[in-house]
Write a structure and sequence with these properties.
Helix content of chain B: 40-55%
Strand order of the largest sheet of chain B: 3-2-4-5-7-6-12
Shape of chain A: globular
Distance between the termini of chain A: 17 Å
Oligomer: heterodimer
CATH architecture of the largest domain in chain B: 3-Layer(aba) Sandwich
Order of helices and strands of chain B: EHEHHEHEHHEHEHEEEEHEEHEHEHH
Number of domains of chain B: 2
CATH superfamily of chain A: Thiamin diphosphate (ThDP)-binding fold, Pyr/PP domains
Order of helices and strands of chain A: HHHEHHEHEEEHHEHEH
Largest sheet of chain B: 7 strands, mixed
CATH topology of chain A: Rossmann fold
CATH architecture of chain A: 3-Layer(aba) Sandwich
Number of domains of chain A: 1
Chain lengths: 284, 315
């Protein structure tokens, strides 16, 4: 594994986290917990894995990404900005009137957003449709779909999982951001969901299944590479993550599913992220 | 008497789908291809036919994904499952992003017949016309269905196509042209207008013929596009004719009648009599019996006109 690449992706993830916090702080609303939990996954997807060009956001041959857990929009906007997509508005107009950065992602407003999402449970079907289009046209592009663990309570996910399997969508890679929490509490308590049984469920639906630490850049990279080598089957990467990852007072705390920081909390959170960068430099 | 050729619009739909040369067209079905008639397309183009199984929500999402990649998906199932069951999937994944998906609901209305209330969709026009970006088409015969399908395929954006199981008479000659959003006026009668859509158009035409024998001269307006509604023809008929009646195989709440009333209220206030399902669920029976029971057959239209006409003349 390329050490410089790993360091670069860690730094990008750190920057994405800072952007997320700034967006939400300015909006005075949003979803920090589930956005922070997927920052490392998005960093690897956009800066290492996906074949995309910010100068040609609509290119036919590009890889596609569906953020099925649309409430993590602040993370998607952040990674698109860091990747160099050109926007009309500042991403800190997030959630404000007339901003292109709506509370949930709108494909017709933001270049680089491949699908409009917001109502949970629909993204996997859409990703299947994209993957099927590639198969019909004999195109090589791949489709990535990020699901929340709580989102798996939506029945449509399992309808879609059967379709991914039926059509042998090996050009599809699903990632479950398994942060163990949903709005009202633990996914384990609300619908008995945990990383292990989520992996088992997908396995029984015919998926190639990989469980990883969703904050370990090397593991994320290697999982994507295994998914690419896999043939005939769709892949699911069950990424064990921590909701609110990177901010001490938000980590694994259900209270930070959908609320903004006050000024003091915001400064503290940014300081923690900057400290992480300084620490990494010293260690090297 | 000459035997009238009858064909169900679902049949016309299935046959015409398979006639499309455009290779971007893909067809999705949810375990009903022999009923929706998409089986004809499946046999001809198996690579562009997607069977999702009994999973309508998944079908709508899959269609949306295909549309983002430049495909023109026609997603078909019974109207009840094509709209009500998947309203939120249509709203979030098709209507809001304005994706080029054609949602095809066959077996609309009480004319489904024996399957009964669960399968007799009487609220679909209401659901679909309430969605921004959605076009709602409800063709009346074989020719119109096929011609409008061509327009629907050319049109960029979401469309709901409402189709019927009941075999209905062929109304139009092969060379008649139709435009989305442009209703068709049949006859020039001044005593009244019957606005009809889908299966009720042929009933309205039968009523028109019988009423003329009784000295009541009405025109029929075939409103094949519920949204965008043809405001011009509604205002014109309201100005030119006496009694205004709408008749539909749908709940009178939120269907054709409501759509016309919306136009009249704002543009040319005038009374409209709404014939249709009176805010109740359907039931099992023969389509013809049910049409009579729910008051949307030609006899019911004739009865209403005779009653209203004589009342208005005597006044």
């Amino acid at each position: 594994m390329d050490i410089t690449k790993v360091e670069e992706l860690k730094k990008k993830a750190n920057q994405i986290r800072q952007d997320i916090l700034t967006e939400i702080y300015n909006a005075k609303s949003g979803h920090p917990g589930g956005s922070l939990s997927c920052a490392d996954i998005l960093s690897v997807l956009y800066f290492d894995e996906m074949n995309i060009d910010p100068n040609e956001p609509d290119k036919q041959e590009r890889d596609r990404f569906v953020l099925s857990k649309g409430h993590a929009s602040s993370a998607l906007y952040a990674v698109l900005q860091e990747k160099g997509y050109v926007f009309e508005d500042d991403i800190n107009s997030f959630r404000k009137m007339d901003s292109q950065f709506q509370g949930h992602p709108d494909m017709n407003k933001v270049p680089g957003v491949d699908m409009t999402t917001g109502s949970l449970g629909q993204g996997l079907s859409v990703a299947n449709g994209m993957a099927l289009a590639a198969k019909i046209d004999n195109k090589k592009y791949r489709v990535y779909c990020l699901l929340g663990d709580g989102e798996l309570q939506e029945g449509q996910i399992w309808e879609a999982a059967m379709t991914s399997n039926k059509y042998n969508l090996d050009n599809l890679c699903v990632i479950v951001d398994c942060n163990n929490l949903q709005l009202t509490g633990k996914t384990e308590e609300i619908k008995s969901l945990n990383a292990e049984n989520i992996a088992e469920k997908f396995e029984s639906f015919g998926f190639n299944t990989i469980i990883i630490d969703g904050h370990n850049i090397e593991e994320i990279m290697s999982a994507f590479s295994k998914a690419r080598e896999n043939e005939q089957k769709p892949t699911v990467i069950v990424a064990k993550t921590i909701k609110g990852k990177g901010i001490s007072f938000m980590e694994d705390n259900v209270a930070w599913h959908g609320k903004a920081m006050d000024e003091k909390e915001y400064k503290l959170a940014i300081e923690e992220l900057k400290e992480e960068i300084r620490k990494n430099k010293v260690e090297k | 008497m000459e035997e009238v050729k009858k064909i169900a619009t679902r049949e016309s739909f299935g046959k015409e789908l398979a006639n499309f040369k455009n290779e971007n067209i893909v067809v999705l079905d949810a375990d009903l291809d022999s009923s929706t008639k998409t089986e004809i397309f499946k046999e001809k183009y198996p690579n562009r036919f997607i069977e999702v199984g009994i999973a309508e929500a998944d079908m709508i999402g899959t269609a949306a994904g295909l549309a983002t990649c430049g495909k023109i998906p026609f997603a078909a199932t019974f109207a009840a499952f094509a709209t009500g069951r998947v309203y939120d999937q249509i709203r979030t994944s098709i209507a809001y992003p304005k994706l080029n998906v054609k949602i095809c609901g066959t077996h609309a209305g009480i004319t489904v017949g024996e399957d009964g209330a669960t399968h007799q969709m009487l609220e679909d026009i209401n659901l679909m016309r309430g969605l921004p970006n959605m076009v709602v088409i409800s063709p009346s015969d074989d020719v119109q269905t096929r011609k409008l399908m061509r327009k629907i395929a050319e049109y960029q954006g979401p469309v709901y196509l409402r189709l019927s199981r009941l075999k209905t008479p062929v109304i139009y000659e092969e060379d008649v042209q139709f435009e989305i959003g442009k209703a068709v006026q049949i006859g020039e009668g001044l005593d009244g207008t019957i606005f009809a859509t889908g299966v009720t158009v042929s009933q309205a035409l039968q009523a028109q013929e019988k009423l003329l024998e009784e000295g009541i001269d009405v025109r029929v307006v075939d409103v094949h596009t519920i949204k965008p509604i043809d405001e011009e023809i509604i205002i014109k008929c309201a100005k030119e004719t006496g009694i205004l009646v709408s008749v539909e195989d749908h709940n009178v709440i939120g269907g054709l009648g409501t759509t016309i009333a919306d136009v009249l209220t704002e543009k040319y206030p005038k009374k409209l009599i709404k014939m249709g399902n009176n805010d109740c669920f359907g039931m099992s029976g023969k389509p013809e019996e049910l049409m009579h029971h729910f008051g949307i057959d030609s006899e019911s239209i004739i009865k209403l006109f005779k009653q209203k006409f004589h009342t208005s003349v005597n006044l």
